[in-house]
């Protein structure tokens, strides 16, 4: 058989049974000719006394030149004492798929170690972004280039792209622990996340007054939702903490909410008089343990977004989120002179860095005081100048 080229491969005859024609110049490089006329490039070599074959690809989609280069690499690996390429291929075929990894991740890690909200977020990332992209691709075969392609495909939603990358990175780290990938091969570490700019929307005093009027108007229509919004603003709690608050966790005599679980674990929320008054005004529903009563018996209110949109539109607070009520509570504390440490305690932050995002607001009261002093002194200076000029 002469050298395998496009012309010589096309000239090979078809037979009743498939056969292999080997290249004259590169031992082990060959092409299998099928009775149907299809031709497939391959390499054949011996390793530990066994004959091994690896398919390279079908002639046509794969040219003879490309097949020859691939064959040289595989034969060099096989004869150079490295990993057996056939063994690597077999291991890859038998390895876990990305879909299987995602299912195991949700069952053995997320369901046990993550809170319900986080569980839903991880499930969403896997169902909407990871499984459609990777599908049955093997975990071992995922590269940084694959990750970069996925991340790039979500460039129009950069925050979601970063969240999805974070979920995938955790999956790959666990894949190493579970023996599905080699150690220290997490391909996500090489992909740079998109820049994120934290939203810092705080309601001004006039905006809070407008919100108050809108809440009063909506109280007859959605009493429990209105109570939830008032409590969020007056306590600085997270949405889930108020939404799922039970009466057994409310201790009005001590002025506390004793939450057995939150984003940062168990915590005590100290209540001001206004928040206590709101809680006292909420009627307790029969056989319902929740403060913010839902539409179904024994449940809490699950949809606060729709009533919030109606309230904020009435108050002309476009684009203001429910979470911005928590920010407003923090800014209010700083406005009355409380330090970042105290604000962090009230918000339930476990890390100083989390509260530090409000640091620029801490200077606002100081600037206001400096401005008042400077204005008074400036007026005195003008008066003194005027008197001096008259003399």
Automatic annotation (TrEMBL):
Residues 198-371 form the Tyr recombinase domain. Keywords: DNA integration, DNA recombination, DNA-binding. CDD domains: INT_Rci_Hp1_C. InterPro entries: DNA_brk_join_enz, Integrase-like_cat_sf, Integrase_catalytic, Integrase_DNA-bd_sf, Integrase_DNA_bind_dom, Integrase_recombinase_N, Phage_Integrase. It holds the Pfam family Phage_integrase. It comes from the Bacteria. The keyword DNA-binding applies. Belongs to the 'phage' integrase family. This is Integrase.
């Amino acid at each position: 058989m002469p050298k395998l080229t496009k012309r010589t491969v096309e000239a090979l005859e078809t037979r009743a049974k498939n056969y292999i024609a080997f290249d004259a110049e590169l031992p082990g490089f060959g092409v299998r000719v099928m009775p149907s006329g299809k031709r497939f490039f391959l390499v054949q070599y011996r390793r530990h006394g066994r004959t091994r074959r690896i398919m390279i690809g079908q002639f046509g989609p794969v040219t003879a030149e490309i097949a020859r280069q691939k064959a040289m690499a595989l034969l060099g690996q096989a004869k150079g004492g490295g990993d057996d390429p056939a063994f690597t291929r077999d291991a890859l075929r038998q390895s876990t798929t990305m879909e299987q990894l995602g299912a195991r991740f949700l069952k053995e890690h997320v369901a046990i170690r993550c809170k319900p909200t986080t569980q839903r977020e991880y499930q969403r990332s896997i169902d909407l972004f990871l499984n459609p992209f990777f599908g049955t691709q093997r975990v071992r075969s995922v590269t940084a280039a694959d990750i970069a392609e996925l991340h790039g495909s979500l460039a129009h939603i950069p925050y979601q792209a970063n969240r999805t990358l974070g979920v995938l990175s955790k999956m790959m780290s666990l894949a190493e622990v579970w023996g599905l990938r080699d150690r220290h091969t997490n391909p996500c570490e090489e992909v740079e996340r998109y820049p994120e700019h934290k939203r810092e929307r705080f309601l001004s005093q006039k905006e809070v007054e407008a919100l108050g009027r809108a809440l009063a108007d909506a109280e007859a229509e959605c009493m429990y939702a209105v109570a939830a919004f008032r409590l969020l603003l007056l306590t600085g709690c997270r949405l889930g903490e108020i939404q799922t608050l039970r009466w057994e966790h409310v201790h009005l005599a001590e002025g506390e909410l004793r939450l057995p679980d939150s984003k940062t674990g168990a915590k005590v929320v100290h209540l001001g008089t206004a928040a206590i008054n709101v809680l006292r005004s909420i009627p307790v529903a029969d056989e319902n343990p929740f403060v913010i009563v839902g539409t179904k018996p024994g449940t809490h209110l699950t949809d606060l977004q729709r009533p919030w949109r109606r309230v904020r539109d009435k108050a002309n607070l476009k684009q203001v989120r429910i979470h911005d009520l928590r920010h407003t509570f923090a800014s209010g504390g700083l406005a009355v002179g409380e330090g970042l440490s105290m604000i962090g305690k009230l918000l339930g932050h476990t890390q100083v860095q989390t509260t530090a995002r409000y640091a620029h607001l801490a200077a606002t009261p100081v600037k206001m005081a400096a401005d008042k002093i400077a204005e008074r002194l400036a007026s005195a200076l003008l008066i003194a100048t005027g008197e001096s000029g008259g003399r």
